[in-house]
Design goal:
five-stranded antiparallel β-sheet; alpha/beta; 12% strand; 13 strands; 399 residues; four-stranded parallel β-sheet
């Protein structure tokens, strides 16, 4: 670990911890925060062409918004998004579009979510709170290198999307991006490879080269298990690459990505260990402290399997995050609503009533909606169960 690496971790921990403390203080004013978020979204959305024909006004309160703006889905807004994709910006919001992020791995079901500058700031608020909590509860990640899986782009789209789409660090402002780059284990250029096979191979090569890997953050645990499958299937090829510091037969596909050279790590691969053996994985990454991934619903069994492989590390769930936005944040063992980020609405599954965050009650089953397309009630999650209520709404804190 270099001096720059240590300084970058120190700066990240200090800044993010401050954001966490601010989040905890502000969480006692849930209604006020949510009304602020709605007002900010309406101020940029109301003047946009997509909303001028409707009843959207920048001075609406939530009650008026709920009465006049129906719950919609992606198909309702797809024509406007398509216009934006054809270089006609500003159709949905006056906040500048930074990129359109695809949500699916197949072209037949791709949904392009507009990421405005305003929306990225909202995501960053949630991300910094979460990182601040991780740095406090898992001191081992304050050193070494981190792996944050890049956005996965279908091979059919890789030649057509902007580099920003491939780089998840682009949700951060430039100075936070520079700091984080000092401890990223894998160059973001791996996502530019022509095929997913080449991206997987290069990612695993860099991960094996990082003996001091301390954090592995992926969305689905099956993605991490796929990385291990690549490691198992290509151990000897990976060893040759790490011995020579060259991509060899993959040089054409990985020309934009530097190749690591790590002869000692190659020697470990030459011994032919099994990724089913926790001792082998611990020998590869002895400093690995935390694996962050989805661990509920259909991901639960896969997260448990991943935890058995990495018996020396902790596995922690991510909460409810999606391409469309952050809903809950892992924080001190609970999953509070990211109320400082987006504006949220919930649909009670018992009676279909639409509720704001400050009216949620414990044991409420609901669908979650947020506003990645400004001033649109867009569903982002399956049924969720409320186990507490927003502080500041006359109820005890919950998640």
């Amino acid at each position: 670990m270099t001096l720059l690496n240590r300084i970058a971790h120190g700066a990240t921990g200090l800044w993010a911890y401050r954001q966490k403390r601010q989040f905890i203080r502000d969480s006692h004013h849930c209604r006020h925060l949510q009304e602020q978020r709605l007002a900010q979204i309406l101020s940029t959305a109301a003047p946009a062409p997509a909303h001028q024909a409707g009843n959207l006004r920048p001075d609406m309160d939530w009650q008026a918004f709920a009465e006049r703006v129906p719950v919609t889905d992606y198909l309702s807004w797809e024509p406007w998004i398509e216009r934006q994709l054809q270089d006609q910006p500003g159709k949905l919001s006056s906040s500048p579009i930074v990129r359109h992020q695809p949500t699916s791995g197949s072209t037949s079901a791709v949904k392009w979510i507009p990421y405005t500058r305003q929306f990225l700031q909202e995501i960053n608020r949630a991300l910094m709170v979460w990182i601040g909590d991780l740095y406090q509860r898992y001191p081992g990640i304050r050193r070494g290198f981190h792996y944050w899986s890049v956005s996965w782009i279908p091979e059919q789209l890789r030649a057509t999307v902007d580099d920003n789409v491939n780089d998840d660090l682009r949700v951060l402002p430039w100075w936070e991006r520079w700091i984080a780059a000092q401890y990223m284990a894998v160059p973001d250029t791996v996502a530019r490879a022509a095929t997913s096979d080449d991206t997987f191979f290069a990612s695993v090569a860099w991960l094996v080269a990082r003996q001091d890997l301390s954090l592995l953050s992926v969305w689905s645990p099956t993605f991490a298990l796929s990385l291990l499958q690549v490691l198992q299937a290509h151990q000897q090829a990976l060893a040759r690459v790490l011995e020579q510091g060259a991509w060899l037969q993959r040089a054409g596909a990985l020309g934009d990505t530097p190749c690591p050279r790590a002869p000692q790590r190659a020697a470990l691969l030459r011994q032919g260990g099994s990724v089913d053996d926790p001792a082998f994985l611990q020998a590869l990454w002895p400093d690995l402290t935390l694996i962050s991934c989805w661990d509920t619903a259909s991901s639960a069994s896969w997260a448990q399997r991943l935890g058995r492989r990495f018996a020396h590390a902790q596995v922690e769930g991510k909460g409810l995050w999606a391409t469309e936005g952050a809903v809950t944040i892992p924080l001190e063992g609970s999953f509070p609503l990211a109320a400082q980020s987006h504006f949220y609405e919930f649909q009670d599954l018992a009676n279909n009533r639409i509720l704001p965050a400050w009216e949620l009650q414990p044991a409420t089953g609901s669908h979650t909606g947020t506003n990645p397309v400004p001033a649109v009630s867009l569903p982002v999650g399956p049924g969720v169960k409320t186990t507490g209520s927003c502080p500041g709404a006359g109820n005890p804190p919950g998640q």
